[in-house]
Design brief:
heterodimer; A: about 150 residues; alpha+beta; five-stranded antiparallel sheet; 9 strands; B: mainly alpha; two-stranded antiparallel sheet; 3 strands; rod-shaped
């Protein structure tokens, strides 16, 4: 076998590997962390069930949103099976459903009192934050922050 | 008869002696029966050899053999200066596979960057699809490049102002999301 033949075989092998790469890179479960967060500008101490959000995440949110203080209401860790779906209960009335799609995408659906409110399909990778949010009473806000572990 | 005389007689038979020496040898042969017998034997031997020596011939001409010799000489000379050229050729043998591997790696990196590791803000970002499932709720989305954060902001749609005042409606999102 001469050099050119060997080069062709190597090249074809690498092309085949690359063709499988996008599938292979996501052919595993997605480990996710979902947090329900409450944002407020009120300096008074929060209700007892609210836990102060970690500084790093709070700083990220402060850099994006107008609220000064962020509190974690709940946190759920889950595995979304490859090409599968996981439903996560964030509170009594708030749920999200996450489906792992082909490529680097996920579909996130938000449910309020069991009714679907919103569905979003978006690229999702490690290090990125997927945030659902909305206004709450007394100029506060709620957030569902999803990150990949 | 000494060896020198025997050699002289051999030269005489072969016709290699000058004229003066030839005459002297002829006188000796005439006078010496032993010398005469040796000359006769030498002549007989010579006739046998000349008449019966096998002659071999080859189909190729001498030019053919010479051209082969010449080629061998040329090759030997090239081999003397060969190592550098051979090394260069050896290096070139790996040029094709290494080139192929490099191209494959570049394509692989491009593929990976365009799939799982596409940074936010790249050309794929427009692929985000946001769909409202409730007619009472609206949404808009935005992306914070600095914080690597994609946000879908959900709000309550403002209903058309009714002609008659209606009772105050509790904001849907407050309790719908169950934050407080």
């Amino acid at each position: 076998m001469n050099g050119i033949q060997m080069g062709r075989i190597l090249f074809l092998g690498c092309l085949l590997t690359m063709a499988c790469a996008p599938v292979a890179t996501r052919a595993e479960d997605l480990k996710l962390e979902a947090r329900l967060i409450w944002g407020t500008n009120d300096d008074t101490p929060p209700p007892q069930e609210c836990k102060k959000l970690d500084d790093e995440t709070a700083k990220k949110l402060t850099n994006v949103f107008k609220w000064k203080h962020y509190y974690q209401i709940s946190k759920v860790l889950t595995n979304v099976p490859s090409r599968g779906t996981a439903r996560i209960q964030m509170s009594k009335v708030c749920e999200i459903e996450i489906t792992e799609l082909q490529g680097a995408k996920v579909e996130v659906s938000l449910f309020g009192k069991g009714k679907k409110v919103n569905k979003t399909v978006e690229n999702f990778s490690k290090g990125s934050f997927f945030t659902l949010g909305g206004d709450d009473k007394n100029d506060t806000a709620w957030f569902v922050l999803v990150t990949q572990l | 008869m000494n060896l020198e005389l025997q050699l002289e007689l051999q030269a005489y038979v072969d016709g290699e002696l000058p004229a003066r020496q030839t005459r002297r040898v002829e006188k000796l042969i005439a006078a010496d029966p032993e010398a005469r017998a040796l000359v006769a034997e030498l002549r007989a031997t010579r006739s046998y050899l000349v008449g019966n020596e096998p002659e071999y011939s080859v189909p190729e001409s001498r030019e053919f053999y010479w051209s082969r010799i010449e080629r061998e000489i040329t090759r030997a000379e090239a081999a003397a200066t060969g190592p550098t050229r051979q090394a260069a050729f050896h290096w070139r043998r790996w040029l094709a596979p290494l080139g192929g591997l490099a191209a494959a790696l570049v394509l692989g990196l491009i593929t990976l960057h365009s799939t799982d590791y596409a940074p936010l803000g790249s050309s794929l970002n427009h692929l985000a699809e946001v769909e409202n499932a409730s007619e009472h709720m609206g949404s808009f989305s935005f992306r914070s490049q600095a914080e690597n954060m994609f946000v879908v902001w959900i709000y309550e749609k403002v209903e058309a102002v009714p002609t008659e005042p209606e009772p105050q409606v509790r904001p849907v999102l407050n309790d719908d999301m169950g934050v407080q």
